[in-house]
Amino acid sequence: MSTVPPYRSFRCVNRRLYFGMMLSVTAAAAYAFISGRLPEFWQQLAASACAVITLLWGSFYTTLHIELLREGILCRIWFFHLFLRWPLLQRVELSEFDVKGIQHCSLLFVFPGKKIEISSHLFSPDDVRELRDDLYACKLLGRTSEQTH
Length: 149
What we know:
Elements: E1 8-11, H1 15-35, H2 41-63, E2 65-68, E3 72-77, E4 80-85, E5 91-99, E6 102-111, E7 114-119, H3 125-137, H4 145-148
Antiparallel strand pairs: 1-2, 2-3, 3-4, 5-6, 6-7
Helix pairs in contact: 1-2
C-alpha cells in the first residue's frame, strides 16, 4: 500500500464564472471610458479601480491550480509556484460539516511554516471527498508529526 495519494488535479469549480465577471466589469469600464460617460476624474478613478480589483480577484481564482504529485503538492496561483514535498508533511486535518443541508469537506495539509487547504468551497465536492478517501487509504489522514519521523 502506497503512502502517497494518487495524482489529482484541482481547479476552482467556478473559474468560468469568475472569468466572466472579470470580462464584464472590464468591458463595462472600457465602454464607460470610450463613450465619454465618465466626465469627472473621480468617476474615471473609481471605474479603473473597480476593473483592476475585479481582475485581481477573478484571476486569483481562475489561475488557482493544486496538483497532488508523487513527490508532493504543487500549488500555482498567477505566476507563483509553491511545491511542498511529502516527507515534510506534518499532518492532514479533515473538517466535514453541514450548512443548511449542504455537506462541506475540507482537507488542510500542514507543512513546516505552510498550509494548503483543499476545500469543497472552491473545488468539486466529489473530488475533495475522493481525495479524503485516498488519504485514508494511504494512512495520511489523521497522521501526526510524530508518525512521520
